[in-house]
Write a structure and sequence with these properties.
Blueprint (H helix, E strand, L loop, with lengths): L18 H10 L6 E7 L6 H10 L3 E6 L1 H5 L12 E5 L5 E5 L1 H11 L7 H26 L3 H29 L13 H13 L5 H9 L2 H10 L3 H7 L2 H14 L18
Parallel strand pairs: 1-2
Antiparallel strand pairs: 1-3, 3-4
Helix pairs in contact: 2-4, 2-7, 2-10, 5-6, 5-7, 6-8, 7-9
Length: about 270
């Protein structure tokens, strides 16, 4: 008989205060007076963009790594039994909790001035960010979960149909924006940072070099990556042992999704 799953510890998402009170408190509190605590596994992957945003902003923050054992035993609090989660600690000892990577990324980007100059730019940035997120999710659902005997066909379909369509679409929209190395306007935004992390994700999967080679065929997409790589805070962050540890663990974690004796991981960080 299979044992029932251990219930996961839950984070409260609602507050005793009204939404109006919480909104007012957030609007009136400077980022310097807030502590952001991000919890994710010891990987790059889905938690990587939020980490980058915290580093770019120079925010007062802590990165917590959930161990596999604690997660399996239900000891890591979450909103929907998934990570990452973000805890926003305010000066009055009030804590707010956010779940879901898309929500966390956009919340942080808005706090740190990386969600555009106005509401329309914010909408465009969210749109590009969401589209990139779904590309990565399709990698998990369309390729990773397939049994070994179907994986070659699934991967070929993903690369030639899904990824190629994504790259054609994004190259078009980047040209629309002036081919300036940014998705929206002429300033760094969440969309730019997220693209770097999506490309980096493919650099950690066993067949990643095939995907990276395709990204390189689209000069405007690649230009965004290179633009992000020149951001001083990110240059410093990616040189740390902490970042390299997340990167290395991602490679180990995704190794099982390769094809015996054939696949190679793309060069990471500095050379991808």
């Amino acid at each position: 008989m299979v044992s029932p799953p251990i219930p996961k510890a839950k984070l409260p998402l609602h507050t005793k205060e009204s939404s109006r009170e919480i909104s007012k408190l957030l609007a009136e509190t400077d980022n310097a007076d807030i502590h952001f605590a991000l919890t994710y596994f010891g990987l790059a992957s889905v938690g990587s963009t939020a980490r980058d945003l915290l580093e770019v902003a120079g925010a007062n923050h802590t990165k917590h790594t959930a161990s596999d054992d604690d997660w399996i035993q239900g000891k890591v609090p979450s909103g929907f039994s998934y990570l990452p989660v973000l805890t926003v600690k305010l000066p009055n000892n009030k804590e707010l909790h956010l779940a879901e990577a898309i929500v966390i990324d956009t919340f942080l980007a808005e706090r740190f001035g990386l969600l555009g100059e106005n509401s329309w730019e914010a909408t465009l940035i969210r749109m590009f960010h969401t589209n990139m997120q779904y590309l990565r999710e399709r990698t998990f659902s369309d390729v990773f979960v397939d049994p070994m005997e179907k994986r070659i066909k699934a991967r070929a379909w993903f690369l030639e149909r899904v990824l190629k369509k994504f790259l054609n679409d994004h190259e078009y929209h980047l040209k629309e924006n002036g081919s300036n190395g940014h998705y929206v306007g002429d300033k760094l935004s969440l969309a730019d940072i997220h693209l770097w992390n999506i490309i980096h994700f493919y650099g950690t999967v066993p067949w990643g070099q095939k995907a990276i080679d395709m990204f390189k065929e689209y000069p405007l997409v690649w230009k965004v990556k290179e633009t992000v790589e020149r951001v001083p805070q990110l240059v410093e962050w990616r040189a740390t042992e902490e970042f390299k540890g997340y990167e290395t663990q991602s490679v180990k974690n995704y190794a099982e999704f390769g094809l015996d004796g054939e696949d190679t991981v793309a060069p990471l960080t500095s050379s991808a």
